[in-house]
TrEMBL record:
Keyword Protease: no
Keywords attached to this entry: Gluconeogenesis, Glycolysis, Isomerase
Active site: 15 (tele-phosphohistidine intermediate), 93 (proton donor/acceptor)
Family: Belongs to the phosphoglycerate mutase family. BPG-dependent PGAM subfamily.
Reactions performed catalytically: (2R)-2-phosphoglycerate = (2R)-3-phosphoglycerate
Name the UniProt record assigns to this protein: 2,3-bisphosphoglycerate-dependent phosphoglycerate mutase
Residues annotated for substrate binding in this entry: 14-21, 27-28, 66, 93-96
Keyword Transmembrane helix listed: no
Description of how the protein assembles with itself and partners: Homodimer.
Length: 236
């Protein structure tokens, strides 16, 4: 810890369980809802943060319903509905390409065991691509009409995810933290992994082993140079 200097707090949260998490479907950019358990996890996360006396100045979420709904529930539990909220496609989950909507076994039957397994274990492995004219491709969705289509994925390796999250972390999130703002970021497993990677300087292999549970707030305490000095699960 850095003596009497004030630490900057940053809270990361994976959304509550979604209906596709429940049934073990690859989800990615598919816009599915929270399950009943996920809604309860979101309420519980808000209560935990409130009981632990957390307060926030700005909230961030992905464009995806499961993260947005989780954030809205937390804000309601903490009576923080008035806070500025920044949504970005750069915080959307890793795009799982043609695997989206499939469960692991059907995916392996369709694409082969190794092509599916390696996407889960190797930082550089990309899932099979969606066809560019697939209506599910982000460039074909009205929701992303304001984004340069050349930036929108048809599938992503974790390295590609890390590359698109990096400018958002360094140009949008960390400058707010540097000003002493208290930040809450609600996103996804893959996104939290690469945020943790960039905050802590982890390797690709370490990132693939990080476990990130739904609905469990992770607090980072950063020194004034934005170096993490502490990381813990709130309420544990
Ligand atoms: O998209 C998915 O399949 C899962 C795991 O990567 O992500 P999340 O439930 O965190 O959105």
């Amino acid at each position: 810890m850095s003596g009497t200097k004030k630490l900057i707090r940053l809270v990361l949260l994976r959304h509550g369980q979604s209906v596709w998490n429940q049934n073990r479907h690859f989800t990615g950019w598919s816009n599915v809802a929270l399950s009943a358990q996920g809604e309860e996890e979101a309420r519980r996360a808000g209560q935990l943060l409130k009981q632990a006396n957390f307060d926030f100045d700005i909230c961030f979420s992905s464009e995806l319903k499961r993260a947005r709904d989780t954030l809205a529930t937390i804000q309601s539990e903490m009576v923080l509905e008035h806070l500025p909220t920044h949504r970005s496609w750069r915080l959307n989950e890793r795009h799982y390409g043609a695997l989206e909507g499939l469960r692991p076994w059907p995916a392996m039957r369709k694409f082969g065991i190794w092509p599916v397994l390696k996407t889960q274990f190797y930082f550089d492995a990309s899932p099979p691509l969606l066809a560019a004219d697939d209506p599910r491709a982000p460039a074909n969705q009205q929701r992303y009409a304001s984004v340069d289509p050349s930036q929108l994925p048809l599938a992503e390796s974790m390295r590609q995810v890390s590359k698109r999250v990096r400018p958002f972390l360094h140009n949008t999130i960390l400058p707010e933290a540097k000003q002493g703002k208290r930040l809450l970021i609600v996103a996804h497993k893959g996104i939290l992994r690469v945020l943790m990677m960039q905050l802590e300087g982890l390797t690709g292999a370490q990132v693939m082993r990080l476990s990130v549970t739904t609905g469990q707030p992770i607090c980072y305490e950063l020194d004034e140079t934005l170096v993490p000095v502490n990381r813990y699960y709130v309420g544990q």
